[in-house]
Amino acid sequence: MENSTILLLRLLSILGVSSIAIAGMDGYTNNLLQNQNYANKFLELANVGSNYIQMNSDIESMLKDYMNTKPRKIKVKLITPSIFSDVLGETDE
Q: Do residues 89 and 22 touch, judged by C-beta distance below 8 A?
């Protein structure tokens, strides 16, 4: 599995940024009727409904790997609530 946010984090590390703020990485849910995974229902991945727990677990694993391998000087913070706050730290809210 690939995740665009993880790919972007790795690119930003290569580019030498000193801090990264993440918004909207709140995690997947099975509540597809309320379109909680994406702002637009047409952006929804076909497999989210049945695999949301595994997808969240995979993303958490990738985030842990990123946090353990990134240059120490890069500060990463969440600016919106996220199920991944245990990995990335608390949000600003």
A: no
41: its two tokens = 């229902």
Burial group, residue 12, by CB count within 10 angstroms (0-12, 13-18, 19+): middle
pLDDT tens digit sequence for 53-91: 888 899 999 999 999 999 888 999 999 888 899 998 765
Q: How far apart are CA 3 and CA 69, in angstroms?
A: 17
24: left (phi over 0), alpha (psi -120 to 50) or beta: left
- What domain range includes position 71? 4-88
Domain count within the chain? 1
For residue 93, being part of any structural domain is answered with no
The answer as to whether 16 is a domain residue is yes
- ∠ CA(63), CA(66), CA(69), 5° rounding? 150
